[in-house]
Amino acid sequence: MPDRVYITVEGPDIKKLKWITNLVKRDILGRVANVMDNKETNNVEVVMEYVLRAGGGNHLEIGTLFGGSAIAVALAKKKYNQPGMVVCVDPLNGYYQDKFPDHSMMDKVTNVPVTPTTLFHNITKFGVGDRVLVLRSKSEAIANLVDMGFTTAYIDGDHWGDGPLNDWNLVKDITSRYVIFDNLDEFHIDVMYACGCADDDPKWDCVYQEGISFVVERVVDVPLATMDVLERMECQTA
Ligand SMILES: C[S@@+](CC[C@H](N)C(=O)[O-])C[C@H]1O[C@@H](n2cnc3c(N)ncnc32)[C@H](O)[C@@H]1O
Question: Which residue ranges form the domains of the chain, and what is each CATH number?
């Protein structure tokens, strides 16, 4: 038996995913954003589901806050023995300091600082330091990661102005399977616009749209860097 098994989980057990979400919700310092009672308003479970369906490989996250969704994905990958890292990109300088400057690092909901210290506290607490990489930066730094290749990406960073569309443009050519968008709702019209652009892209098809989640799947033209990473991974697990 290889120590890592390369599997695609077609219909991951939603109860197990809920268990992971509840664990993270209960023990995280700070909070998990976008976790409500059902799948429609709880896109952390949607993210885990599509990461598992993709069957392994690196996962890119734009917008990490206290680490809720990134830690949940890392735990899900571990539970299902799927290889790959979770790469988080976030300036970690307070809650949307550029949009709503208050010169404090505090999250107003929890009064916990949005800083690398809090994030690494949580990564350590959940034992996922071997699966999570953090880039303390705005999403444009993703341009430096193109050679990593990602199978999935979650866009949950800047929800306003050019932010969502810029993020889609940053991930669409380096992601080989699914891109998940957060906050498709009437309060985030720029997210809606970016989701519309993703839907119109001939290389991508919408495969899930419920509540605040929107997921597209790549239908053609797997990026070369990602292909290479997947081939190497298959060799390791054969
Ligand atoms: C809604 S929170 C993310 C929630 C997180 N995914 C979770 O599960 O709890 C949005 C995060 O996006 C970050 N952010 C804002 N602008 C960004 C940008 N241009 N690039 C990357 N991250 C950004 C903020 O610092 C904030 O931590």
Answer: 33-220 (3.40.50.150)
